[in-house]
Amino acid sequence: MMTERQRQFREQYKGRISPFYNGIVHIGVMFAVGIGLITFCLRQMQGATWEWLFVVPVFIAGNFIEWAMHKYVMHRRRDVFALRAIYERHTREHHQYFTDNDVTIDTTREFRIVFFPWRVLIVLGVFGTLFGWIAAQILNPNAGYVVFITMVGHYLLYEVFHFCCHVHENAFVRNMPFVNTIRRHHTAHHNQGIMMHKNMNLTFPIADWVMGTSDLDRGLVGTIFNGFDETHIKTDLRPIVARFRNSETQDKRVTLDGPILTPEENQALA
């Protein structure tokens, strides 16, 4: 159930959205460009075989970069213009708009708080071109295209999974493997007591498992295929999660920059 604090923040945020903003145009342009770039690369490739193996290391690297960006940029304020803007948009807006009491949206105008701005795809395209060019010089053009395709594809998958985390409950998000895992994983991340420390992945919780930041106490395969199962949530996290779902705790111990934690809570989250 949404708290009064969260409801007020939502109303204020929605009041600041430009009247010219259109959520369908936002995601339509983003996915059209992303899919168009992937299609272009596929058409340039000739007789690719073993080069497709590069999908695996590039995807794994992307999974850890996704984790690191979330943990050390989106949730750590740094006095550098671009990095500070990312932090402000994520911790001070996204995590005030959504808590584990209510993580869903109702209108396409709220796409503004779910999807990244177009410039993120532009930046990723620049880095994809750079790393793709390096792979092409070292190996061959097919390898370069595979690197670029994987990077852009990973970003589009990130956006799809994140969207699935913030829509209303339905049969697809409840039963689709991987999607149901990341929906529970991300909803737990939106608990304001653990949001700065746990569940940083937004595609597959691989890096979270490796780096010890998953809220679950189970193996890698179990973590990836966990779905909505909450029986494996770490025992020492349960009281923190319950405490910060309480509206009184949120009013007293939650700020725009995250929760005010006791030494015992910090130790449990370490």
Shape: globular
What is the alpha-carbon Rg in Å? Answer: 19 Å
Structural class designation: mainly alpha
Q: How confident overall, as mean pLDDT?
A: 95
Poorly predicted parts: none
Order of helices and strands: HHHHHHHHHHHHHEEH
Distance between the termini: 28 Å
Strand order of the largest sheet: 1-2
Number of domains: 1
Q: Can you offer a commentary on this structure?
A:
The chain is an all-alpha fold. The chain has one domain. Helix content is 63%, strand content 1%. The protein is built from 14 helices and two strands; from the N terminus they run αααααααααααααββα. The chain has helices spanning 4-16, 23-44, 55-74, 81-97, 111-114, 118-138, 141-166, 171-175, 179-189, 206-211, 220-224, 238-244, 247-253, 263-269; strands spanning 254-255, 258-259. Strands 1-2 form a two-stranded antiparallel ribbon. α2 (23-44) runs antiparallel to α7, α3 (55-74) crosses α7 (141-166) and α6 (118-138) packs antiparallel against α7. The protein starts with a helix and ends with a helix.
Describe the structure concisely for a colleague.
This protein has 270 residues and is mainly alpha-helical.
Helix and strand topology:
Blueprint: H1 4-16, H2 23-44, H3 55-74, H4 81-97, H5 111-114, H6 118-138, H7 141-166, H8 171-175, H9 179-189, H10 206-211, H11 220-224, H12 238-244, H13 247-253, E1 254-255, E2 258-259, H14 263-269
Antiparallel strand pairs: 1-2
